[in-house]
Amino acid sequence: MKYIALTFDDGPCDVSENGGTAAMLSVLEKLNVKVTFFVIGQNVRDNNKATKAIFEAGHELANHSDGYAPLGNAQKNEISASLESANAAIKEITGKSPSLFRAPNLQYGSELFNVCKEKGMSLIGGSAHNDWAVDAESILKSVLNDPKDGDIIVLHENNTSKGNTMAVLPQIVGGLRERGFEILTVSRLAKLKGIVLEPGISYNSFNN
Predict the structure, then answer these.
(1) For residue 83, what are the domain limits?
(2) Does 206 have pLDDT greater than 80?
């Protein structure tokens, strides 16, 4: 058996013509798969119901900053405020502060690493698929092109990807399973691979 983590950025999002978080959760439930949602703090506050639905469905909630601005070149106080605000919003739902952080646009800087270390958070990257800018078939092909044991797949919520990611989510999950993968959250994948995630350290995969 091979193992892979499936993650979704930029949520949660309200019901929209692209489906919203509720529609994506419905598909994930039918597929019987648990994933990691890297959520935006302001979206958590704006879509409290959707955030609770993610948590209650057994998915993992992680920090994707409080807004959309890159933090790689930001000042320490700005980074700290963004992470703290998002953490507080997530903790209100889950009862605990998240230990996983994904940098907006996957942009890093020394101060970002320092802040994450101070706050006990590991930085999670992954194999990014530009699903906000391309059609559904292209997303499917990019994910299934060359997945590897221990990979972390980076996709986006419905409103960011204009519903294209959700449209092929059954084929993505089915295709990965046909290739021998079990799909996990980031934390479960790390644990299964025997990796203790360290604060302030960046991980793009858990390949052996």
Answers:
(1) 2-203
(2) yes
